[in-house]
Amino acid sequence: MKKYENIIPMENGMNVPGVVYASKELFDLVKDDKTIEQVKNVARLPGIVGKSIALPDCHRGYGFPIGGVAAFDLKKGVVSPGGVGYDINCGVLLLKTNLTKKDLEKKEEKLADAIHKKIPSGLGRGSPFQITYPELDRILEGGSKYLVEKGYGVKEDYLLCEEEGCMKGANAKLVSERAKKRGIGQLGTIGAGNHFLDVLSVEEIFDKKTAEVYGLKKNQIVILIHCGSRGLGHQVASDYIKKMEEEYGTESLPDRELVCAPVNSKLGKEYLSAMAAAANFAFANKQIITFWLREVFKSFFPNSKIEFLYEVCHNIAKIEEYIVDGKKAKVCVHRKGATRAYGKERKEVPKKYRHVGQPVLIPGSMGTASYVMVGTKKSEEIAFGSSVHGAGRKMSRTSAIKSIKGRDTKNKLLSKKILIRSSSERLISEESPEVYKDIDEVVKIVDELGISKKVAKLIPMMVIIG
Amino acid sequence: MKFKFLSHTADVKFRAYSDTLEGAFSNSVLAVSKFLFDGKIKEEKKFSVKISGRDFESLLYNFIEEILFLIDSKNFVPSKVANLKIDKKKFSLSATFLGGPAQDYKIESHIKAVTYNEMFVKKIKNKWVLQVVLDI
Hints:
Number of strands of chain A: 18
Oligomer: heterodimer
Number of domains of chain B: 1
Shape of chain A: globular
Strand order of the largest sheet of chain B: 1-2-7-6
Number of domains of chain A: 1
Strand content of chain B: over 45%
Largest sheet of chain B: 4 strands, antiparallel
Number of helices of chain B: 2
Radius of gyration of chain A: 21 Å
Number of strands of chain B: 7
Mean pLDDT of chain A: 96
CATH class of chain A: Alpha Beta
CATH superfamily of chain B: Archease domain
């Protein structure tokens, strides 16, 4: 066995073996919580190639494990909405500023309040960004690129975004009225759950050359935003789960949530087009948030400049090319709570970063570090170009509410000079650092495994959640 | 006991119980309501709905999804359900959701979706039990 490679051997019904990339400690955390069963179930789906993969941050999900990657043959394989998740293109955007920690001194409280006030989070706060249905359709097909053309940003924003801010093949007609009704009032909102907007500072640089290419310096202020396609994406997932169940049934599947359609079927293609539209909604969502953030920062620091470092997708299915069984092949890769992590020279990586590899953004929890890493060839070889998407949960919300008080977490964060803004104390307890695995440990394993390499460590200063 | 929350690493899992299927479905609304807001929600708004499915599980899935649709599109937070009638042969139901405007309450969390993961609706020793995992 190679280091950190825990093979799940083939057994009844599995088409390929599974693998959990983890240290003994991380593997022990998940070996009894149904994660392994879910890895095996994914391996039972038709046309899966390579291995059913779980990354070091993996944990039990619903159907597919979270932190899971699975690739399917384009002729014999399937696409599964459950393998993408309900929050289509939930992802992370890292913005860099021309400010340093010193610039923020004595303004922290007011700045945190202003951001919390300007950017809607939680439930019940609609978005001030009101649009018509035809406008929504243009956003679904044009993504953040369309919004930039309308004046909500600059070209470099979408150029430094996975898919250049507009996933191809999106068709707004394949998104139901119901989904549009859920999403139309939500553009520019963070949502709740594990979504957040953090202001952080660069604490440490590990890879000087790459950090320079990415434009990161010690003590620089950066902003990390984690959110997705809101109610619109959730409804698209739900709609196609039902359609696929109607057309293909679930009787032969080990879990109803694994419902799927052949990638090359009409319904499979329609799902991918609707998913791309929801993905574009998620890109647009972060573009509006960025537009507002720039306004807030300008009101405090008139000379402030906020630029995209990169934006990555965590929940997505894409047709990508790899060497599979010694041959070049296009496959449908599902990433469910995983980040693409391409190394040098892949044409999908923005020109600016192509000679070093793509930025891989790994948020920690509210009280811990986050990391910027760089993608590698190794990740293309062993994980269909994927890396982890965070620390990964280890404790359920139900247990968190019972054992952790939101107020205590708030105080602990304050003692580390981290400000938190949230309308819900319960949510603070549900998202407390203790409920997540140790991010430093996860990142160490990822680095040693080589599926991405450390570039910089970020330390939170402000945390804004639902 | 009307409902109970259980542990699930990623999400929230609950079971609802009752002597009747209607009762168990109604109690699932109480569980969803409790997860969103721990307190009294005034019944100022109501939405009457008709829902169908292919079996009890898909009927339950569609029933809870309807609440999530009302939360997102109508800014509604549910308190309970009334006039719930289930046609067990056709797997269809009619019901009225009662609740209030979300902005009037300090909502604790949001629900992204209902999932089929570990879902069941069954009768165990004369009692209906259903189980749901919500994606948060």
